[in-house]
Design a protein that fits this description.
The complex is a heterotrimer.
Chain A (H helix, E strand, L loop, with lengths): L1 H32 L3 H17 L12 H17 L16 H22 L3 H29 L7 H10 L3 H4 L1 H14 L23 H26 L10 H22 L5 H29 L2
Helix pairs in contact in A: 1-2, 1-9, 1-10, 2-9, 3-4, 3-9, 4-5, 5-8, 5-11, 8-9, 8-10, 9-10
Chain B lengths: L4 H20 L5 H21 L3 H25 L15 H21 L13 H9 L4 H22 L41
Chain C lengths: L2 H21 L3 H26 L5 H31 L13
Helix pairs in contact in C: 1-2, 2-3
The chains are: A mainly alpha, B mainly alpha, C mainly alpha.
Main location (chain A): membrane
InterPro entries (chain A): NADH_UbQ_OxRdtase_su1/FPO (IPR001694)
Organism (chain A): Caenispirillum salinarum AK4
Amino acid sequence: MMAVAAFVSLFALLILGTALAAVMDRAAVALASGRPMGAALKEPARRAAALLLRQKVETERPDSITWPLAPVAYLMLAAVGLSVVPFAPGVVVTDISTGIVLWGACEALTVIVVFLHGWSANAPMALIGGYRYVGIGLPVLLLSMFVLIAAALPAESLSVVEIVRAQEAGLWNVVRQPPGLALFLILGLMLTLRGPFDYADAEDLAGGTKAEASGPHRLAWRVARLAMLVSFSAMAATAFLGGYLGPVLPGPLWLVLKTVAVMAAVIAAGHMLARLPPSRMLTTVWVVLLPLSFLVLVLVGVELLLWP
Amino acid sequence: MAVTAADVLFWLLALCAGVSGWRVFATDSMVRASFLLLLSFLSVAGIMLLLAAPYIGIATVFMMAVEMMVMALFMVMFMMNPAGLNPMMMVHQHKLAIGAGVLAFLGLTAAILLTDLPSDPVPADRAVVHDLGIELLGDSMLVFETAGVTLLATMIGAVVLSSRRGRYGDADTGSRPPGLEPGGDPAGREPEEGGGGHHHHHH
Amino acid sequence: MTLTSVLIVASALVGIGLYGALSQQSFVMLMMGLELMLNGVLLAVIGFWSFGLGGAPEGQLFAIIVMAVMAVEMAIGFALVVAVYRKKQADMTEALETLKN
């Protein structure tokens, strides 16, 4: 019974969240540019329909397996990542003792899927996009692992369920370790190829890894990126904002509200922040952000020793 | 003996691990090769999950994903054909290598079949991840820390080895590409002397 | 799924890895062969732990050491490849007839 509820919640959150993310993404553009909001609500559906009807373009000798499979794998990783998030006490799809490691594995495989999407098209812009994304993606991945371990420290467990329980008993992690959430949001920008961390699908490369994708393939890639945003936001809400915890309203609703709030923050950051040149960004990540995440981990450790 | 779902899954994963491991050395492209190797690792990780090792199994996925990604990065860096989608077959001592591989497999299998293997499976209710954590930071802390220091030394060693600037000048000073045939003209370009134009010698 | 079957799969991986390490000309492909052998070793270690140790954590610890060895092998291997490439612009084993220079 609980398992059925967990599966239903997962797919409902993933599908409805993806649709909402698409609308929010257009609404953010409308808000910034002063265009009418009503059009922004209809635009995602209109664009999706147009992409569905458009024909497919073939590149010269693409990798026939990974090229069509990359968007599917991206979407699946979003679903698997979301599966460790509990929707209410006892309602979780994969209740394993190493949930946070599983999420980390999904992050790592996402970088690979984006690289493969760029590489398999056998086209220059797409390859450059995938290649430089990996360079930035790998250190950001390390950073996120430090931050996640810090979030798991108060729970003394790698299980996501336990992390929520520890926040129920004590403080929410966002209060204990606010820089952790900020650093984790960077991972969100990286995983969903957004704004300052969009080195894969950026416009300066004519669309990067999606440059050669058209029609349903391009639509699938977009949907997968938005689904990953939902999955990431739910994870951030669970690890740092207490997940389903909250007064008055039922638990799952709290999780949805928090997820939408994180989604809004990531979308806003994606539209508002500029992208650094890759070499400078690489230096920033290795020299500033990565040591900072390590410092967060050390501080959380010290804090837990002093105030257990 | 009844065949359970776990058995079927095990043999499927084993088949996937073996076949993708073999395809690594039979595929056209080096990028494909590195991700086929990753597929082999993922299959083995799946088997480890079946063997009740949830931490090691998933950590293998995480670690090998990053490692194979780095490998593919190096592939693209060193290859003349960046996308790596052109055919290639670069092997030497092929028959000897096949013989050695088959011999290793047969020898090990014979040893396995002739040995009286222990049978003391993990109890189902054992908190294996908890045990591992206590072991890592308890009795075996010295081993764990030694591994950590070794990795640190590796990082420093890797940077020193691969760095271009060195104590005795640039690493590529006077470097000469290998000949196209033994003793023949060098293949490819010769790097600029000293690189960067700082050390031009005028005679 | 018994210890015997797990170990046979592991030895198959070791055999394939040995073939790759001996037959490949490219340094990076050679390292893939070594990695595949270590993959088999890792599987064998976890197999022994799972079936033969009654869950003693030292078995998992050994697996972590094998993973550390893999990481060391990769990092030093790639550093050597970069050093050789700098000196000789070569990524093939045949290009190295001598370790001098």
